[in-house]
């Protein structure tokens, strides 16, 4: 099993920044890709960004390109999501997820491990 713990959420004004962290523990060697997802009230969970653990390749959904940056530290087993120029529509619970199979996927069902989520609220 792998455990994922997110931190860094909070309340910020539009245009502000937040940095989310996801610390992994347990069977981290089984991880091949990590993703940040978000879910707003009444909406489906969607991928925000993903990163290949060995390749470092990245993926961003169109709505966050140029504003969000995903990064990782293999030695610390940590993934970050730097969120800049935040907008009210970014308000959601943000989840960290790990995938055992190769490749970043936009499909949440393909991820094997999930964190508990952290709330991000952007006020206008």
Commentary on this structure:
This protein is an all-beta fold. The protein is 0% helix and 52% strand. The strands form 2 sheets. Strands 2, 4, 5, 6, 9, 10 and 11 form a 7-stranded mixed sheet that branches. A hairpin with a 5-residue loop joins strand 5 and strand 6. The chain is globular, with a radius of gyration of 13 Å. The termini are far apart. The model has no long low-confidence stretch (mean pLDDT 96).
Helices and strands, with pairings:
Elements: E1 2-7, E2 10-13, E3 18-26, E4 33-39, E5 46-52, E6 58-60, E7 68-73, E8 78-83, E9 92-99, E10 113-114, E11 118-123
Parallel strand pairs: 2-11
Antiparallel strand pairs: 1-3, 3-8, 4-5, 4-9, 5-6, 7-8, 9-10, 9-11
Offer a quick outline of the entry:
With 124 residues, this protein is mainly β. The chain contains no helices and eleven strands.
Q: Uncertain spans, ≥5 residues at pLDDT below 50?
A: none
Estimate percent helicity.
under 10%
- Distinct helical segment count: 0
Residues in β-strands, percent? over 45%
Order of helices and strands: EEEEEEEEEEE
Average pLDDT level: 96
Could you give the count of β-strands? 11
Q: What is Rg?
A: 13 Å
What is the first-to-last residue Cα distance? 40 Å
């Amino acid at each position: 099993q792998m455990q994922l713990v997110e931190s860094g959420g909070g309340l910020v004004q539009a245009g502000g920044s937040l940095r989310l962290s996801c610390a992994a523990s347990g069977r981290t060697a089984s991880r091949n890709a990590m993703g940040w997802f978000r879910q707003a009230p009444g909406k489906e969970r969607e991928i925000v960004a993903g990163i290949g653990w060995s390749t470092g390749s990245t993926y961003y959904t169109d709505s966050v390109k140029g504003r969000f940056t995903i990064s990782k530290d293999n030695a610390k087993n940590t993934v970050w999501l730097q969120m800049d120029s935040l907008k009210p529509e970014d308000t959601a619970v943000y989840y960290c997820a790990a995938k055992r199979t190769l490749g970043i996927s936009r499909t949440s069902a393909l991820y094997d491990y999930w964190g508990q989520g952290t709330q991000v609220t952007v006020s206008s």
